[in-house]
Amino acid sequence: MDKLNCWEYCNPSNFKDKLPKPYNFINKIMNTMILNEVYNKIFEIEKYRDDPNYEGHLRTLPPQGIFEIPQLTYISRDSSDNLIAAGDSQGNLMILDLIKKIRIAKKETNGKRILKVCLSDREQAMDEYKNVCAIGVIHHNDPTVYIYRYRINENKIQLHYTITMSKDKNQIGEYPVDINISQYCQYISIAQYNGFIKIFRIPDIKIDNQQSFNQNNNNIDAQSPIQNQQKMAGRVREYQQIGSQQQQNINLQSSPLDIQCIELTDLVYQVKFRGIQKQLNYNGILEKMKTESVKESTQVEDKVDLKKKSGVPNKKTVESSQVVVDEILYEENENTTQISDEDYPEQKFKALVEFVTERLNFQNGNRTFNAYKQQECVTGIVVGWTNTTILEIHKFANACKSALPEYLNTQQIQTTIQQKMKQQIIEIQILYPLSSLAISKNSINLGVGLKQGSVFLYDLIMEQEKCYLDKHIYSCTFMKFCEDNRLVSASYDGSVNIYDTQECKLLCKRTQQFRKGTRMKIEEQKQGLWRIIGMSVSNTGLAVALDAQQEVRIYDVWHGEKIAKLQPQQVMDEKSRQWVIEKPIVACFKNEILISAFTKLDSTKQTTLQIFKIFDNLVNLFPGLANIYRKGVNKEKIMNLFQRINKSELQNTSFEIPNLQGPSSNQVRITGQENRASLQRPGSIHNSNRSNKLNKLPSAINQNGRQSRAISLINSLQKSNQSEQQVDFNSSFQSNIPSQFTNRQQKQNSKQIVLTKEILHPEQFLLEKQKIQIPFLVKDELEMVQHCRNRNFEKLVRIEKVSNMIQQVGQKLAIEEEKKKLQKRYLQLSIAK
């Protein structure tokens, strides 16, 4: 463009043309690199002042794949080796592969619509069947719970167990509504429509018993009936038939998974729900009085009629005075409704159940200095009912070795009989009705959302409230934990909050979507036009929320930001799609996000699952991660580094992971490796220094003597206690020799450089987050925790006593004041007379 046609050049108040060329160049750099970004930030700040729900510029992300499965109803919220379980309205149970985006296995069931599917695998199993997962299924209008098993790389789903919950198939009260399988496939919790909760134990795959069974059958077959020639021919035929049947059974039951379906009756625990006591209003009390008066009048009339009919006067009988007890009425769900093909009536009191696990520490062997192992065992459940103030912790097992599943118990003889434990019930007092519930991965923090909008944390170890967090305007409908120190909550008013549970502070408080020109009205919030209808959280640090206006947003849980919005339409997709509102499917896994959608012109509204890859979206959103990926860093490492990188570094296009180089003045010092052998070739200098160091070794060892050995033993014990929690990057093995002696001995014996994890993977060491160490409960610490609980209980008792005493004193003072007023009034009246 010509300079004369440019307004900036012709503007009389502009003096850019008079500036020298270097200053003009500097001015341009100042505008482009500094001032423009500052002006944009000021614009966003002004927008936030005007409306705090302003979300800024969000990128829209299309799906990276689709599961074309018609009439899909539910998918499992947990995965096993990137495999999930799904069910449809025709009663088909399927296994889906998230990486290949295909259906691997399919099982036709009773033909009824599948309501819920849950999945759990045998973690840390060392046998041949470690990759076997258990699948629990609930059907519509079916009182039976089905438990299937599936082995990875085998396209076969097998039914193992059934649990019949109700014999009365006409009423809906005892029908199952929700299920959940605990860790290690050990327990299954079943919530019924009437609010009852039952917990059953799932038997493990018994390989040893199956092998012994096959051996016994082989021994029976070895005694062929032809050997007994003295027996009759008819009996020989019978034995031959029995032998052939046994051979068929052996061929069928060659695997422990090939077993017949068994009815489970091992009920471990049960929680009953009576409902809420009804409180009568003024009109209700009047109606009750009227009905009672009508009943009394009818009873009197009946007595008079009987006296008239009986001509002969009977002897006077002394009527025993009956004690009239008011019946306590409870408000319950619609348990007596008849079963129909339509959906179940909405539950007013819905049961929320979460399993509680505790860490168990035991030695791997009988030796004194063997390393300690840590395992998690299920000890109880947290139970709450929506629209009630009932929230309880039920403990039905002790944290001991016998509470572990069979395949994790290292004893040769399995102790099936456990020590009887007194069933402990802890009531958590809440002021407002319950609406949502979540438990952290380490079972330390319990997140509770109330109908009034409040959110608070409960410490399951100390058994007391930890802190109250920032509340919502209306009821908190969804709540999920991300690992142990992040909590995400969604509300009926359309807001999403992200909390840091370690520091008990709010990281993000945003509404789901921002409307230009208008603000969120209170009436619209009450009606629920912007309510959140689906939410899920991934362990990688992303949360996904779907609202009633068919809008999907992604949140960065680690940094507390709204980062993108999702659309159901693919780039080259000819069909126009939109999100499902009625019974939506929203699920997050390690690297995938699944959301249900349907085509607009389709009258049947067949659902399809839209697949969003978490890693691909992170690389597209953050230039810092894209730069690392271009340098050849592995995907899993980048996803682990995502939570450890700052916000500014994520947007930095030239961000790189610092590498460890050779010995120099600017080299990063690694703790615990100051005395390590220098990274240089063995030459004349190294050989000349070796003799001097060898001469110094005996004197150093003799000076330390017994103290160094004692210290080394203590250090080895401490390392063995925390062997699984903290990885020792400083050495490839552990010993009982002092650290100085081992470093010198390495310089003597080893000429090759040992490749440690710091050298191979420097990004894991330099950018590793300081993980919260889970409290390690040994005997002394258990006593300390119990002592703290007792002290806390004594404190509460003292507070109650003091408050009661203050109330009594206040009542006495009030009575004395009333007496004084009456005396004054009496004196005034007497004087007036």
Structure, explained:
The chain has 833 residues and is an alpha+beta fold. The chain is built from 16 helices and 37 strands. The strands form 9 sheets. It has a 5-stranded mixed beta sheet, covered by helices on one side. It starts with 6 loop residues before the first helix and ends with a helix.
Structural class: alpha+beta
The main β sheet shows up as:
5 strands, mixed
Q: Which shape, going by the Cα principal axes?
A: globular
- SS element count, helices: 16
Q: Could you give the count of β-strands?
A: 37
State the share of residues found in helices, binned by percent: 25-40%
In what order do the strands lie side by side in the largest sheet?
A: 1-33-32-31-30
The percentage of residues in β strands lies in 25-35%
- Regions with little confidence, pLDDT below 50 for 5+ residues: 208-253, 312-325, 410-418, 659-753, 769-779
Average of per-residue pLDDT values: 74
Radius of gyration: 36 Å
Could you give the distance between the termini? 111 Å
Name a few traits of the molecule.
833 residues; 5-stranded antiparallel beta sheet; alpha+beta; 29% helix; 5-stranded mixed beta sheet
Task: Give the structure's gist in a few sentences.
The protein has about 850 residues and is α+β, with helices and mostly antiparallel strands.
Write the layout of secondary structure elements.
Layout: H1 7-10, H2 21-50, E1 59-61, E2 65-67, E3 72-75, E4 83-88, E5 92-97, E6 102-108, E7 114-121, E8 132-139, E9 144-151, E10 157-164, E11 176-181, E12 187-192, E13 197-201, H3 207-222, H4 233-252, E14 262-263, E15 267-271, E16 276-277, H5 282-309, E17 330-331, E18 351-363, E19 372-385, E20 391-395, E21 424-427, E22 434-439, E23 445-450, E24 455-459, E25 464-469, E26 476-482, E27 486-491, E28 495-500, E29 505-511, H6 522-527, E30 532-537, E31 542-547, E32 552-556, E33 561-566, E34 577-579, E35 586-588, E36 592-599, E37 608-613, H7 614-621, H8 623-630, H9 635-641, H10 647-650, H11 684-704, H12 706-721, H13 739-749, H14 757-760, H15 762-766, H16 779-832
Helix pairs in contact: 3-4, 7-8, 11-13
